[in-house]
Write a structure and sequence with these properties.
Elements: H1 11-17, E1 20-26, H2 33-41, H3 54-65, H4 72-85, H5 89-105, E2 108-115, H6 127-143, E3 149-157, H7 162-178, E4 183-189, H8 201-209, E5 213-218, H9 225-232, E6 238-241, H10 253-261, E7 266-268, H11 270-275, H12 287-293, E8 297-299, H13 311-322, H14 326-336, H15 344-358
Parallel strand pairs: 1-2, 2-3, 3-4, 4-5, 5-6, 6-7, 7-8
Helix pairs in contact: 1-13, 5-6, 9-10
Bound molecules: inosinic acid and zinc ion.
């Protein structure tokens, strides 16, 4: 795990040295520029009409690097493009190893990666080989001594069928046992405008009963009160985004009450929400609403590659926008340990590490 150095350091450096927990990171959204270059090089031999749209990728990078907001639809176009490039197990292995290493280099000590198992008949990749490749890459990172604990969450894409969701949950149950607890849960994500997640409730309840934990994207866009309430009341174990839960943005007191009654932590991704234009400015981010209430908040990246961010940058952004002290950032990162899906032994290991690091950061 990353070790804090002594002495006075800048706020940026402090955020990097701060030991951190990342609980909301989509594998294919987390691909760095460097890894993208390697992935594109693997496609260079293809005829022109089968080449990935590098121009679209470049345009996106230019816009996001300049700190501009785009739209949620444009974000989903990017994922489509990335999936065309990450289309075999070799690419999945490369991406997983690079992403895990990059999070570790950013001072992340515990990472929950999530990804949608995909099959690509043209390359022979199946959902099972996809999952096994990710698990093997995580193991290789550990064998190579990369100092980070990683767990894996299987994602259901809400654009896909009920049968596909059922299959993902079955795979999660299966690999939870086979992976010795590396697979810890199920995510629900994908374009929030598509489908109604209420149809998935019995499946998600079944998954939870089987011991899987739920990290569901909820209220990412406005006007989803009934769906959001049903997902909150499963209850989900964590909320992805929760941007439109509270009444000030068109949510409701009922949604806030459900979130508070079940004490469900929120995974908050500031840059992602700004670029996707679901929040108009950083200071209007719902972090403030929930943080001021003392409700469990976990700062996360969502898609560090697509949104050109890091977890350190997200902590720094919260610090600058909401005028948080170093001690408050420390408390945020330390409290995040309470909300991980790994077992109590891992929580104890992490808490010990935080205790060791604290004095080095002069807190
Ligand atoms: P993958 O599951 O590893 O392929 O990561 C990319 C996928 O994550 C996308 O295709 C979406 O389904 C999902 N995803 C990433 N970011 C978001 C988000 O902000 N909202 C909803 N879904 C997302
Ligand atoms: Zn997400």
């Amino acid at each position: 795990m990353a070790t804090a150095s002594e002495g006075h350091v800048s706020e940026e450096k402090f955020c990097k040295l701060l030991p951190k927990v990342e609980l909301h990171a989509h594998l294919n959204g987390s691909i760095s520029k460097e890894t993208m270059t390697k992935l594109l090089a693997r496609k260079a031999h293809l005829p022109q009409d089968q080449q990935p749209d590098t121009q679209a990728l470049q345009q996106w990078t230019d816009i996001v690097e300049n700190g501009k907001a785009v739209s949620l639809d444009a974000c989903f176009q990017m994922f489509k493009l990335i999936h065309q490039i990450v289309d075999d197990t070799e690419a999945v292995a490369m991406v997983t190893k690079d992403v895990v290493r990059e999070f570790a280099e950013d001072g992340v000590c515990y990472l929950e990666l999530r990804s949608t198992p995909r099959d690509v008949p043209q390359t022979g990749m199946t959902k099972r080989s996809y999952i096994e490749t990710v698990l093997k890459a995580i193991q290789q990172c550990q064998d190579e001594g990369i100092d980070i604990i990683v767990r894996f969450i299987l994602a259901i894409d809400r654009r896909n069928s009920l049968e596909a969701a059922e299959e993902t949950i079955q795979l999660a149950e299966d690999y939870r046992a086979k992976s010795g607890g590396v697979v810890v849960g199920v995510d629900l994500s994908g374009d929030p405008k598509v489908g109604d997640a209420r149809q998935l409730i019995p499946l998600l309840q079944k998954a939870r009963t089987a011991g899987l934990r739920l990290a569901l994207h909820i209220a990412e866009i406005p006007d989803q009160e009934a769906e959001s309430l049903a997902l909150l009341n499963i209850p989900t174990d964590r909320i992805g985004h929760g941007t439109f839960l509270h009444p000030e943005v068109g949510g409701s007191q009922g949604l806030v009450a459900a979130t508070e009654n079940h004490s469900i932590p929120l995974e908050l991704c500031q840059t992602s929400n700004f670029v996707g234009k679901t929040v108009a400015s950083f200071d209007e981010h719902h972090f403030k609403y929930w943080f001021d209430k003392g409700h469990p908040c976990v700062i996360c990246t969502d898609d560090k590659g697509v949104f050109h961010t890091t977890l350190s940058k997200e902590y720094h952004l919260a610090m600058m926008t909401f005028d948080l002290s170093r001690k408050q950032l420390w408390q945020l990162s330390e409290r995040s340990i309470d909300f991980i899906f790994a077992d109590d032994d891992v929580k104890q290991t992490l808490r010990k590490h935080w205790t060791n690091e604290r004095s080095k950061l002069q807190l």
